[in-house]
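Support request, please re-run this one:
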Amino acid sequence: MILFFIHRFNDIDHLTPVIYKLAKETDKEIKILAINPFVDIENDFRLKFLERKFGLSSNYLIDSFKPSLIYEVLAYCMARPYVKNDINFNLRKALKDLTDFNFKSFLYSVSRLISGTLRRLISRFDLYQKLLRNFYNESYANKLLSQYKPSLIIFDHASTSTQKNGIGTTPPIKWIAGEAKKKSIPILSLPHGVPLFFNSPKVYDKRKKWIAKDLSDHIVLQHEWWHEEVINFGLERERSSVQGLPRFCDEWIRILHAIVPGYDSFEYEGSEKLRIVYMDTGPDNYSNKKNHAQELIDYLSDLDYIHLIYKPHTRSNKSHLRVSHSVEIGTDINSVKLIEWSDAVIGMHSSIMIEALIQKKIYISPKYFRDFDLLYEKYKACFIAHSLNDIVGALEKMKKNKNVALYAQDDVDKFMTDVVMNRESHADVLGNYLALIEKMMNKDNIKC
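Re-run finished. Output below.
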């Protein structure tokens, strides 16, 4: 068995293609467990695809393995969200079941209403970590691995390369990893995002130190530039590699575009205007230049020929900039569909800009927002804006001709080959991951 541990939207995005390839090409037993009981696995379209296609169900770790009654109770309190993860939907369903005299369904709806409320209270009052420390300990991890007997455990970087008191140094990950080492079960760590800096800023030094001390037996880095930076901070080259970016490889992109949820009511919005999406980043990434980003948002919101959608960063879903009533908030719209709708995307250094390049949408990189360079810019695979006037000039050109070429497609193709496919044109990225996993399962080749 191969045991995959997931915990957030972003790592699901990057791990799902690898799980897909394993299920498609091998007969290996795969189990997907969510470490975080507050992530919505019931309604995740990527996980639902794996279940439809291969019968691969996902479950919360604390609900999957319950060695005694107390764990049954804890699972009920933390791993049973509201129906559809929505209290209002749950309430309406309970009332409908009652008026329809469907008592079995009514009891189920009431049970989920109670458990969903308990779950929300545990999250609100930050009781989760206290429960983990007291119950999901070394003994629990030992019994878990004895029950499933995995031949390989796969985490994402956030679980294996974290600071003190981060997810990888606290229960249950701490104990699962420790017990895996005792039982000689290899651990593979895969990317959960893509740092796209060309020489990352100083603030990322801490992260490089954490990755250099990663607790896995083998860690896959996103691309050669980041790989070399982390090696310079102490990561052993022989237990690390670069395999390409599964989330953006051709094989997975075809599937992803077919399964991503549609938004019919939004499809024709702003069709008479220039459609712009602003992809936000974390607040720390603006440093002392957040005022430039705010100035841009304010300016764009006043232009009558632009329909602007502001998309908060997907890791937090929090807005870090003020937006006027004329700006639409795209929190609940999938980024793939937002890009499909757009004429141009403006954003910092998120990997979602690769999706914009794949869809051949104009990507405007506001270089003047930051003090560091991006790989997009190194390859000239975007329109590089050095000022607000540069962005306004680009938009004026697009107003006259939405298909105007602001940078060369050859440069984009070179970026895709070198960064997404690890310098191998038409590389079988998912096949490379599959080969690595099969090698990892041979315990004599753990360092690969």
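The two ends are 20 Å apart (CA to CA). The chain has a mean pLDDT of 92.
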